[in-house]
Amino acid sequence: MDASGPAPKILVVDDTPENCELVRATLESAGMQVVAALRGGEGIRAFAAERPDCVLMDVRMPDMSGFAACQQIRALPGGADVPIVFLTALRDVETFDKAMQAGADDFLIKPVRPTELLIRVQAALKLRRLGAEVGSLYESIRRQRDDLMRLQLQKERMTAFLVHDFKNPVNSLELRAQLLLRSRELPSEAREAVLQMRSDVRHLMRLILNVLDVSKGEEAALRPERSRLELSAVVARVFESLDMAARDAAVSLNAEVDQVTVSADSDLLERVLENLVENAVRHAPQRSQVSVVAQVAPEHVEIRVRDRGRGVPEPIMATLFEPFVQAPADADGTALARTGRGLGLAFCKVAVEAHGGQIWVENEAPGASFCLKLPHA
Questions:
Q1: Is 25 within 8 Å of 118 (Cβ atoms)?
Q2: Which of 30, 36, 255, 323 has its CA 20 to 30 A from that of 191?
Q3: Is the Cβ–Cβ distance between 232 and 258 less than 8 Å?
Q4: Tens digit of each residue's pLDDT (9 = 90 or more) over 162-184
Q5: Averaged pLDDT for residues 196-204
Q6: Distance between CA 56 and CA 24 in Å, rounded?
Q7: Percentage of residues in the chain with pLDDT exceeding 90?
Q8: Domain-embedded: residue 162
Q9: Three-class SS of residue 377?
């Protein structure tokens, strides 16, 4: 901040003391003063007494909502032009619209990254200092920003609805395939077709769940339910699920995971390995092998999924686990080696990091190893 003037004073109104302390630590490290209030009414009184330069307001509080507190602050002397930024865990269009109608200047979704919080508070303070001469330009920019935020929240809600609506018919297809496979009268050719259908249905369900879990990961809402797992049993289920795909690709599956246990969410870990093994099978040469190998260290378990394909192009190594990464093309226009191909690898990153682990890729000679490290419980 500008050392020639007084330090900006920020009022934080949040009924969770831990949130207030996080904001205090973030802003005081940047040279700002922080005043905390744990109730909406207390925040209104603190505003009148302290005359802060900016207000950070929670939405849900016991005595009154942040919306009501914001409206009352706006009615106080000096309250009309003080920037008010809402901090909330509610990620929906209705909450955003209510905040804007109450007179909010900005809207941040918890958990807020300290760097983002600091940048947004500094931006609010700078805009206030610029004064009325740029007021109309500021209002235009703010309307555009608010429209973008509403579109983002609407997209997230639509994604959640689609995932929910898709899961039911896909589950029904899986059940019907299982019923067909139990029939002893099913001809062998039909059985192969049903097995392929079941494999495709499971792949579709994995894609649907990837969309949901990547979205949860972006909101820091993915919470693994850990239990002690025999890794060999998890890998066996993965190999069974991908047996048809491996046979079609003329690739064999091999596991070296005996006597290894992990502390992890069974469903999440199984889907991580399904994504990694399916990715390896897709890029492995015919008559080659895809391996899952595990090693136990004092503080973690390291799992590697290896193939003997062309490896990962250097230009996309750093972004391979981001959504929808595409590889560059050969001179003849064909794609080089592998791509992220949607959300599969992005989901793997979200799920592994939700466990407190790490995921990365290493090129070998030949092929690649997708490596994940899970800490012991």
A1: no
A2: 255
A3: yes
A4: 776 777 788 888 888 888 888 88
A5: 83
A6: 11
A7: 49
A8: yes
A9: coil
Tell me, yes or no, if the pTM score tops 0.70. Answer: no
Tokens of residue 228, six digits = 């002690």
CA–CA dist 371, 356 (Å, integer): 14
What tokens were used for 265?
A: 């969410």
Report the C-alpha gap between 369 and 362 in whole angstroms. Answer: 5
Give the residue with greater pLDDT, 335 vs 363.
363
Burial (Cβ within 10 Å: 0-12, 13-18, ≥19) of residue 108: middle
Q: Is residue 135 part of a domain?
A: no
In what helix (H) or strand (E) does residue 342 lie, and over which residues does it extend?
none
The upper half-sphere exposure of residue 306, i.e. CA atoms within 13 Å in the direction of its Cβ, equals: 17
At 257, give phi and psi (nearest 5°).
-135, 20
Whether 320 and 267 map to the same domain: the answer is: yes
293 in Cβ contact with 256 (< 8 Å): yes
Q: Quick check: is 142 in a domain?
A: no
Strand partners, 31: none
3-state SS string over 73-125? HHHCCCCCCCCEEEEECCCCHHHHHHHHHHCCCEEEECCCCHHHHHHHHHHHH
The domain tally of the chain equals 3
The DSSP call for residue 237 is H
Burial class (CB in 10 A: 0-12, 13-18, 19+), 10: buried
Residue 126 scores a pLDDT above 90:
no
Mean pLDDT of 340-364: 87
246 secondary structure, DSSP code = H
Residue 278, both tokens: 């399916």
Contacts of 308 (CB under 8 A, 6+ apart): 284, 285, 288, 289, 366, 367
Per the CB < 8 A criterion, the answer to whether 170 and 208 are in contact is yes
Please report the sign of the dihedral spanned by the C-alpha atoms of residue 237, residue 241, residue 244, residue 247: negative
Tell me the two tokens of residue 198: 């079941």
